[in-house]
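Here is the promised in-class demo. Please do not try to memorize the tokens; focus on the logic of going from shape to residues.
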């Protein structure tokens, strides 16, 4: 897959469309075809859910499920991902994911964000390979540089995993066993209740960022408070939005940092953080893999 440019890929889509048309025509001549009329099966794969099916409520099709079955990307999926109007609205990825989920009772809106990330990554790896080259912006000096990520290098993280260092929480995290956690903040001694973000939350967040005319791909640091407002369900037991917003805006920076770090550690995710070192200013830190357009449209 690597080495193709976009023009060549367009050619590939046309070829694929031609093939499926031929398949449809062939299918109509045979009586015992499935409803789609296609005489080939789109291969599927099972993706390990970072949540392990925990945290989904009663009746959700993924409750207790450790994996989810997804179809391999097709040419039509590529069309969805390149639709400029959809991308603008931030909908392309969600529509694509909805398309590849085999069990149609599962809605992307209800998926936990970490499970979504794992599915996206798996679909990308089986479609285009694990090498991901993209431009990243240094958070310190804003220099742009090319960075290469290996999408197979991720780890499943979260409070429920064996790798989670519970002692590091110093008794400040309580699992409420209902998909929420209480985090006692060290500086203010305020207890915040956090919940897991879903696909729907992510969409709302992206919309609000767009409304603020910010770029959504500049990294999580710029939308920190928006994100906290989304996942904080209560402050000292109060779920009133005015209390939550008031606290987020006034919380000490050290608590903010503790909250973000702890939240990242306890939420189920397919963690693709990799070490980032800026050649221009020497800044280095672990960085999350940015889901830019290159994710599904690799340049090389
Ligand atoms: Zn830099």
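The designed amino acids, position by position:
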């Amino acid at each position: 897959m690597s080495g193709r440019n976009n023009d060549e890929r367009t050619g590939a889509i046309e070829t694929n469309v031609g093939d499926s048309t031929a398949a449809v025509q062939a299918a109509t001549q045979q009586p015992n075809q499935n409803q789609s009329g296609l005489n080939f099966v789109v291969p599927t794969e099972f993706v390990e859910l970072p949540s392990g099916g925990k945290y989904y409520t009663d009746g959700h099709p993924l409750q207790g499920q450790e994996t989810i079955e997804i179809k391999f990307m097709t040419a039509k999926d590529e069309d969805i991902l390149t639709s400029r109007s959809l991308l603008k609205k931030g909908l392309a990825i969600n529509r694509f994911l909805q398309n590849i989920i085999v069990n149609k009772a599962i809605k992307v809106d209800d998926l936990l964000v970490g499970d979504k990330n794992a599915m996206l990554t798996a679909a990308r790896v089986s479609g285009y390979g694990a090498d991901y080259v993209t431009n990243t912006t240094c958070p310190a000096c804003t220099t742009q540089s090319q960075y290469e990520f290996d999408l197979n290098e991720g780890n499943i993280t979260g409070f429920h995993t064996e790798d989670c260092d519970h002692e590091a929480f110093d008794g400040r995290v309580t699992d409420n066993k209902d998909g929420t956690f209480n985090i006692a903040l060290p500086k203010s001694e305020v207890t915040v209740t956090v919940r897991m973000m879903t696909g729907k939350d992510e969409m709302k967040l992206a919309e609000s960022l767009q409304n603020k005319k910010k770029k959504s791909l500049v990294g999580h640091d710029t939308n920190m408070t928006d994100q906290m407002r989304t996942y904080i369900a209560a402050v000292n037991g109060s779920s009133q939005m005015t209390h939550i917003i008031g606290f987020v805006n006034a919380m000490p920076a050290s608590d903010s940092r503790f909250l973000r770090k702890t939240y990242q550690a306890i939420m189920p995710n397919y963690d693709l953080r990799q070490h980032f070192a800026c050649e221009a200013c020497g800044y280095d830190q672990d960085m999350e893999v940015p889901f830019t357009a290159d994710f599904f449209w690799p340049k090389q």
